[in-house]
């Protein structure tokens, strides 16, 4: 009887923790973005601590993805329009370091670029590419879009970023 109870408790604990934690690809608006610790290809450490309180735009791509390539111009436009010390842009890829560096240079990517290691790839598997996620200063996902719809991507993220930047300004004015 004790053995059955122990097996049941172990199984129940596993089932609860598995359902409580969404897979990364299932995250949506209002969910807290997972903690990060990445090293960029320029050797800069990016952690949850150093992006806390900032608006963060995450772009998940890979070099052989046609829609990912076509979207880079629009993403660079967003960067040029919104990048400040309080608005951070991070591109993440499963490509190796050399491929990532060549891709960044060829497409003149302005973002901080991360070539994820195997563990990071498993943890941050976007599911569809490109995937773009805007996270507010409170750490919650504001907007998530998959696939490449250049004008729609630009317009929706521009609007969402303006709203998040206004929230930051209002908060700093109040404090």
Description:
The protein has one domain: 3-Layer(aba) Sandwich (Glutaredoxin), CATH 3.40.30. The protein is 46% helix and 20% strand. The chain has 6 helices and 7 strands, in the order H-E-E-H-E-H-E-H-E-H-E-E-H. The chain has helices at 2-20, 48-51, 66-82, 97-106, 118-123, 150-174; strands spanning 37-39, 45-47, 55-61, 87-93, 112-115, 131-135, 141-146. The strands form 2 sheets. It has a 5-stranded mixed β-sheet with strand order 5-4-3-6-7, with helices on one face. It has a two-stranded antiparallel sheet with strand order 1-2. The longest helix is centred in the last third of the chain and has 25 residues, at 150-174. It starts with a helix and ends with a helix.
What's the helix and strand layout?
Layout: H1 2-20, E1 37-39, E2 45-47, H2 48-51, E3 55-61, H3 66-82, E4 87-93, H4 97-106, E5 112-115, H5 118-123, E6 131-135, E7 141-146, H6 150-174
Helix pairs in contact: 3-6
